[in-house]
Amino acid sequence: MNVPMLDLQxxxxxxxxxxxxxVASVVERQQFIMGPEVGExxxxxxxxxxxxxxxxxxxxxxxLLLPLKTLDLQPGDEVITTAFTFFATAGAIHNAGGxxxxxxxxxxxxxxxxxxxxxxxxxxxxAMVVVHLYGQMAAMERILPVAAAAGLPVIEDAAQAIGAxxxxxxxxxxxxxxxxxxxxxxFPSKNLGGWGDGGMMVCRDEALATRLARLxxxxxxxxxxxxxxxxNSRLDxxxxxxxxxxxxxxxxxxxxxxxxxxxxxxxxxxxxxVVTPVVDPANEAIFHQYTIRVPRRDALRExxxxxxxxxxxxxxxxLHRQPCFAHLQPIAGGLPHTxxxxxxxxxxxxxxxxxxxxxxxxxxxxxxxxx
Length: 371
Hints:
Layout: H1 8-29, H2 36-49, E1 53-57, H3 60-69, E2 78-82, H4 88-95, E3 99-103, H5 114-120, E4 125-131, H6 140-150, E5 154-157, E6 165-168, E7 171-174, E8 181-185, E9 199-203, H7 206-215, H8 237-246, H9 250-268, E10 283-284, E11 290-293, H10 297-306, H11 336-344, E12 345-348, H12 356-370
Parallel strand pairs: 2-3, 2-4, 4-5, 5-8
Antiparallel strand pairs: 1-9, 6-7, 6-10, 8-9, 11-12
């Protein structure tokens, strides 16, 4: 049985009429740059994230880069982050003028270890970028006091976590809500994905929101008037239109992913050698990925591929092992949990349209391999 990693065609069939109507409206109006759809989407995402301000931009990478640029980083300034994430996290730090400092992960959730953050702070530290990996939030209630004590802003990389939430001090807080800035990606494979690149920044500070909005428009609030050197990082109106059609379905899609994850848990929970994902009890995850640990991971991938079943490894080479960062000084003691995850993790197909039969085929192939 063929089981793709993600089936966007199946998703499109369920919402085709709404999406095409939204897109047609933009085409008829011919207002492709900063059309009204962008502002409408910003308002809706701000509401979802429980913040007053949301600023659309060209990609999830730019959503990280622009807030980092507001810190005016100088050579030698350090930004603490995880090595177990997509390259854009550290690439944005570098391109903003900072030096990434990679710390280890919690081996249970794969998210950044708050204790490792505390140990990595030096007089050169200027900020930290906290990634909410695979769709569940990091322990922000532990990270924020560490950051506050050192006077450091926290940027939340919520590229994989739109709609995820965590109970903090008895209240549900959304991914992107608690930090200095929260960043979102609308890459097509995300839980809320467009028809191309797109991103958004969310925050609570009006002055910061104003500057971010200026930076995405070549540094000027008015055309041909530039207060600083910015970027061409506008969210296309066509992308905003697609996302507006999809956004009302996001909560149901997230719930369906949780149901698929729970079924995987039941089916794989008794398979020797498989470690299923652990969701922190404080979290409501959105399962952007369903990531297990297994021995002989690469051989398992070959086995699945031979049976028409897709899988992915996020991430086979962590950032501290990338050639472009080979010059960076390693953290004392290394990153043992990151190294172990690199060798063991494999992500299985998970999406709302995944059928029971497809899921059964995935599990049967894993059982067959590990038998």
